[in-house]
Design brief:
This protein is mainly β. The protein is built from one helix and six strands. The chain has a domain of 72 residues: Ubiquitin-like (UB roll) (Roll), CATH 3.10.20. It is 9% helix and 34% strand. The longest helix is centred in the middle third of the chain and has 10 residues.
């Protein structure tokens, strides 16, 4: 993958994560280093905006994401990681971060 073609904003690119069965699991951000680490290891790495550091999904929980395929959108400004998810993707303990409907609960 030629990373020079990707359109990063402030050094980051959004990554939608989908399991091999088609369920959308989460949205995260990656910088170039995270993408390179993902390609090197075969496991999803991201850039934490709140902690300002690289992290591997599941590094503490064990809920890793093995990369099956990486796709890029038509504008080269977002990525889709298709993964085999071990355990839950969401830090709340839910399989997907998208477990609420708008209006069901406040985002606080």
């Amino acid at each position: 993958m030629d990373l020079s073609k990707l359109r990063f904003v402030n050094g980051l690119i959004p990554v939608v994560v989908q399991d091999v069965g088609g369920e959308v699991l989460m949205l995260a951000y990656a910088n170039e280093e995270a993408i390179r680490k993902t390609l090197e290891t075969g496991y999803a790495h991201y850039y934490s905006r709140s902690r300002n550091k690289l992290w591997m999904k599941g590094e503490t929980s064990g809920n890793v994401q093995r990369i099956v395929e990486i796709r890029v959108d038509c504008d080269c400004d977002s990525l889709l990681y298709i993964v085999e998810q071990k355990g839950n993707a969401c830090h709340t303990g839910n399989r997907s971060c998208f477990f609420r409907r708008l209006g069901d609960e406040d985002c606080s």
